[in-house]
Amino acid sequence: MKEDIAQVTVSIPIKDLWKAMACDMRHVVPKVLPDIVSEVELLEGDGGFGSMLLFKFCPDVPKVSYQLERIVEYDESVYQIALEILEGGHIDHGFSSYTTAFKLTQVSEAKTLIDIKVLYETKPEHNHTPGDTIKATFRYINSLEQYLLKDLS
């Protein structure tokens, strides 16, 4: 298993960030990435550990219409969540496994550090540049921060 790791600090209190990233994910993601995700449907579970989510992509997203994910880690006590892609999305584009994990740490009352870890395996014919997996995650986090800053003001 290969891994890409990164850290980013956002100007959002940890409890608000956790609520958006973990508790309310299926409602927040389409608002944060409206040009990419049209809907997130909860297929199984209560939104916590073991839950299955279907991310439906907008028609303009090239070569992908959906991504099925399972929450494989969910621990509110340490603000940690991980999602594994089971079908669609990255799995259709050269990856045989793909899991994104987030660990939130309070830096100050209004700032949160996000540790990001992407664990993945590529198919033999797929050329992957290390660090590329983090680019989409950074876009999501940046868009989420902007969305929450508007909401908090």
TrEMBL record:
Domain of life: Eukaryota
SUPFAM superfamilies reported for this sequence: Bet v1-like (SSF55961)
Pfam families: Bet_v_1
InterPro entries: Bet_v_I/MLP, Bet_v_I_allergen, Plant_def-hormone_signal, START-like_dom_sf
GO CC terms, sorted: cytoplasm; nucleus
GO molecular function: abscisic acid binding; protein phosphatase inhibitor activity; signaling receptor activity
Boundaries of every Bet v I/Major latex protein domain copy: 8-150
GO BP term (any one): abscisic acid-activated signaling pathway
Family: Belongs to the BetVI family.
The name this protein goes by in its record: Bet v I/Major latex protein domain-containing protein
